[in-house]
């Protein structure tokens, strides 16, 4: 079990938090998701997983949801 | 045509009349139905058709107020203390103190003191009193007069006249001393101290009031926070922890033992008991299994459940309750401040008197300056500075006294309502009763009651079911608790099996034991029938296949309950009980404590409707409750009283919170609110009274310069002392 933090941009409100959480949860291997919202800034996405997170799949999922992962 | 709902946050309302005006402006927009809540500064608007929010905001702006749309997802979480108001109070008080002292104490009047007073007063009457001027101008546009008008007018006239006198009469001479004679005309009176002190005191009153109003604003955010923060989603057999809001309709999620159900759903796997006391008020957990529906916000008291989400977000039961509370609050007629009601009549009269007095004096003397000075003196003396303190001082004293006895008065607005409570509606669970199931009776057949209790406790030891906890607690109290049984197996919703020595002991529902046992002894069947009809929950105990005992568990009535109900009756108040539990349980409790009228099996909407019905009958209703299920009723009631151990929502939607669980405080709270209102009225009578006496003196042209100051001092001292009497209020 490990937690990896990612920066996400484009979040403005709680609604975005839910959308991004859901998108991240659907990525295989993920066991937990939480987000510290910084509206209109860079929010932090905490992803818990048993093995290392598939960063490519996560990136794809976030972009599809309409947000951006900071690299 | 479709109907949409918009919530607007309003700015600039100073009194209930403003609320009415905004409502009128919104109603003038075609296809719009609106309710304006003065206390929460909100407008709740139903739009039929194509009108959008910008049209509504434009309509509100046109009548002189501000508005913006509230996003339901993003309610403001807090309204900070207005830092500008705080600054106005501090600066005004600091500057007004020397002005008052040098004006009232001849010995401190140094050469040229009047120019210093003028300099110190200028920022007070311009920047400090700006909120009053602004409100007065806004009111004037609608031909309305409130307390703001009186303050603004009094302060402006006092200041402008004094400045005129300073520059154009001998009042400006260096070495002038203020004449402190009570009677006699002086053409060069200065009223700087009046302008300064009135502004400072009324501002201080505003600040005291705003702190109580702010607390009320926090109310609804708490309701949303009651829901679970996190949910465990089941995605392709994988458990993922996500924020609760991410769950969508049709998703499958897991609720662990002890966890909060994140949203409404239907069980597709597992068995457990659900503690819904916070939401529905039922005191004993309900067994649930596959197919049972769950309400978000309830607690899973038993085993792991797999649930399919049937409603999320705005569609959930909890969201429905939130909306119900909002509607009840928005529908509530705002309480117009007593002081504004009086001002609405008083101010026009004073203006007419001042103008008429001026005209008469001009006709008699032909001296314009003299006539204006009479009119000015009349307006100045009419604005009592105690006016700004009358309500806040009484509220402060009342709330302070209450706090010492564990009565927290939150909604001070309701204390200004002139209506007296005639009916008190009380919730049962957690209000009349302790809210925790306890063992109330034990029966043994062939064995002692203690044996039954001890054995049941020893097999139920590891179970986290509230009934089991009640059994273990009672066994421990009676000292009959032994070692935990071996080989404990729990069958959720039915009971527990374990072995003590060589005997297999089972404890659980009587139906479950009856299925697998020989005949149940008649004594136990009879007791079961009696106890069930009395609304008690049962735990049966069996040795092998023989049922040997029965334990009755029930929510116990608080010792203070019947005393409290009697105290309310003594105040001439009718008592009504509204319970979420079934009618049988409700009846037992109602009779035991001496309630006048009772209703069982009531859901949150029923409770709210009951109160609305009583109100339609002309009753003024106070509601006492503690659960989320009481929140809508608390908001609907004229006076909402929450028990302090209750849920946040109940506390936030109530007007008064009782810290202790002692129900006698309800009667105390009602008496205290009556006393506080009486004090506010008394204060206002005297605040206006002293000045009303001074008006004819001013009109007669014989008012000495000190009269305004003395009237101010007398009425302020009276208001402070009269309010302090509330400290002697005695609780039962």
3D structure, described in words:
- The complex is a heterodimer of chains A (71) and B (732).
- Chain A has 71 residues and is of the alpha+beta class.
- Chain A is 31% helix and 37% strand.
- The mean pLDDT of chain A is 86.
- With 732 residues, chain B is an alpha+beta fold.
- In chain B, the strands form 5 sheets. A 7-stranded mixed sheet of chain B has the order 14-26-25-24-15-22-23, sandwiched between helices. A 6-stranded antiparallel sheet of chain B has the order 6-5-7-13-8-11, with no helix packed on it. Chain B has a 6-stranded antiparallel sheet with strand order 16-21-20-19-18-17, with helices on both faces.
- In chain B, strand 2 (32-37) and strand 3 (42-48) form a beta hairpin.
- The longest helix of chain B has 36 residues, at 664-699.
- The two termini of chain B are 58 Å apart.
- The relative contact order of chain B is 0.11.
- The A-B interface holds A 13-15, 17-19, 21-22, 25-26, 28, 30-35, 48 and B 71, 73-74, 230, 233, 235-236, 238-243, 245-246, 248.
Short overview:
The complex is a heterodimer of chains A (71) and B (732). Chain A is built from 2 helices and 4 strands.
Largest Cβ-defined interface: A-B, 18 and 16 residues
According to DSSP, the number of beta strands of chain B is 26
CA-based shape of chain A: globular
Instruction: Kindly report how far apart the N and C termini of chain A lie.
Output: 23 Å
- What distance lies between the first and last C-alpha atoms of chain B, to the nearest angstrom? 58 Å
Question: Helical percent range of chain A?
Answer: 25-40%
Number of helices of chain A: 2
Our Rg estimate of chain A from Cα atoms comes to 11 Å
Count of distinct strands of chain A: 4
What gyration radius of chain B follows from the Cα positions, in whole Å?
A: 33 Å
Spell out the helices and strands of chain A N to C.
Answer: EHEEHE
Could you describe the largest sheet of chain A, including whether it forms a barrel?
4 strands, antiparallel
How would you sum up the global shape of chain B? elongated
Strand order of the largest sheet of chain B: 14-26-25-24-15-22-23
* Number of discrete helical segments of chain B: 26
- Main sheet strand line-up of chain A: 2-3-1-4
Which class best fits the helix and strand makeup of chain B?
A: alpha+beta
Name the poorly predicted regions of chain B.
Answer: 72-79, 215-227
């Amino acid at each position: 079990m490990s937690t990896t933090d990612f920066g996400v941009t484009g979040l403005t409100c709680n609604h975005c938090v839910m959308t991004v959480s859901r998108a991240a949860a659907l990525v295989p291997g993920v066991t937990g998701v939480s987000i510290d919202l910084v509206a209109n800034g860079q929010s932090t996405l905490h992803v818990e997983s048993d093995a290392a997170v598939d960063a490519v799949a996560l990136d794809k999922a976030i972009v599809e949801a309409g947000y951006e992962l900071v690299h | 045509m479709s109907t949409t709902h918009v919530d607007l946050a309003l700015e600039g309302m100073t009194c209930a009349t403003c609320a009415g005006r905004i409502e009128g402006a919104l109603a003038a927009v075609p296809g719009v139905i609106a309710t304006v809540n003065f206390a929460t500064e909100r407008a709740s608007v139903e739009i039929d058709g194509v009108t959008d929010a910008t049209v509504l905001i434009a309509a509100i702006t046109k009548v002189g107020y501000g508005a913006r749309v509230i996003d339901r997802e993003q309610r403001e979480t807090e309204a900070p203390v207005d830092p500008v108001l705080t600054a106005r109070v501090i600066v005004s008080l600091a500057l007004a103190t020397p002005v008052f002292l040098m004006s009232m104490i001849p010995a401190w009047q140094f050469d040229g003191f009047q120019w210093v007073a003028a300099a110190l007063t200028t920022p007070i009457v311009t920047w400090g009193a700006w909120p009053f001027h602004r409100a007065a101008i806004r009111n004037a546009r609608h031909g309305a007069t409130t307390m703001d008008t009186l303050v603004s007018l009094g302060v402006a006239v006092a200041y402008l006249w004094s400045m005129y006198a300073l520059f154009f009469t001998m009042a400006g001479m260096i070495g002038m001393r203020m004449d402190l004679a009570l009677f006699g005309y002086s053409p060069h009176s200065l009223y700087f101290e009046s302008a300064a002190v009135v502004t400072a005191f009324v501002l201080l009153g505003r600040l005291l009031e705003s702190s109580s109003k702010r607390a009320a604003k926090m109310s609804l955010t708490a309701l949303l926070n009651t829901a679970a923060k996190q949910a465990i989603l089941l995605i392709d057999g994988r458990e993922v922890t996500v924020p609760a809001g991410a769950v969508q309709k049709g998703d499958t999620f897991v609720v662990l033992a002890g966890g909060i159900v994140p949203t409404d759903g239907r069980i597709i796997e597992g068995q457990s008991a659900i503690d819904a006391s916070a939401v529905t008020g039922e005191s004993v957990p309900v067994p649930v299994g596959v197919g049972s529906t769950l309400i978000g916000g309830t607690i899973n008291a038993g085993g792991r459940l797999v649930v399919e989400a049937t409603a999320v977000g705005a569609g959930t039961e909890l969201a429905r309750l939130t909306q119900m509370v909002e509607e009840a609050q928005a529908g509530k007629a705002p309480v117009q401040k007593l002081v504004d009601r009086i001002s609405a009549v008083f101010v026009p009269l004073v203006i007419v008197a001042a103008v008429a007095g001026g005209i008469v004096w001009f006709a008699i003397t032909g001296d314009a300056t003299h006539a204006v000075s009479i009119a000015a003196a009349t307006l100045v003396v009419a604005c009592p500075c105690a006016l700004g303190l009358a309500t806040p001082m009484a509220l402060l004293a009342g709330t302070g006294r209450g706090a010492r006895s564990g009565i927290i008065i939150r909604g001070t607005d309701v204390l200004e309502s002139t209506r007296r409570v005639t009916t008190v509606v009380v919730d049962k669970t957690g209000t009349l009763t302790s809210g925790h199931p306890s063992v109330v009776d034990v029966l043994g057949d062939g064995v002692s009651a203690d044996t039954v209790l001890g054995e049941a406790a020893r097999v139920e030891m590891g179970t986290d079911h509230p009934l089991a906890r009640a059994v273990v607690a009672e066994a421990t109290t009676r000292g009959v608790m032994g070692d935990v049984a071996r080989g404990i197996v729990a069958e959720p919703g039915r009971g527990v099996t374990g072995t003590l020595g060589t005997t297999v002991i089972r404890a659980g529902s009587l139906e479950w034991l009856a299925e697998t046992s020989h005949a149940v002894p008649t004594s136990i069947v009879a007791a079961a029938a009696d106890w069930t009809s009395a609304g008690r929950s049962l735990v049966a105990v069996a040795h092998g296949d023989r049922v040997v005992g029965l334990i009755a568990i029930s929510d116990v009535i608080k010792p203070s309950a019947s005393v409290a109900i009697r105290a309310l009756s003594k105040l001439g108040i009718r008592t009504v009980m509204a319970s979420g539990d079934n009618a049988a349980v409700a009846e037992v409790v109602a009779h035991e404590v001496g309630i006048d009228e009772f209703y069982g099996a009531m859901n949150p909407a029923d409770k709210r409707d009951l109160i609305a019905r009583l109100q339609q009958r002309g009753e003024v209703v106070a509601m006492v409750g503690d659960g989320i299920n009481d929140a809508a009723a608390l908001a609907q009631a004229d006076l909402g009283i929450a028990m302090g151990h209750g849920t946040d929502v109940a506390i936030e939607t109530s007007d008064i919170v009782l810290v202790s669980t002692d129900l006698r405080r309800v009667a105390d709270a009602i008496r205290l609110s009556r006393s506080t209102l009486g004090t506010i009225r008394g204060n206002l009578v005297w605040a206006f009274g002293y000045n009303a006496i001074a008006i004819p003196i001013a009109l007669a042209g014989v008012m000495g310069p000190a009269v305004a100051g003395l009237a101010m001092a007398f009425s302020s001292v009276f208001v402070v002392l009269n309010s302090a009497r509330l400290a002697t209020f005695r609780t039962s």
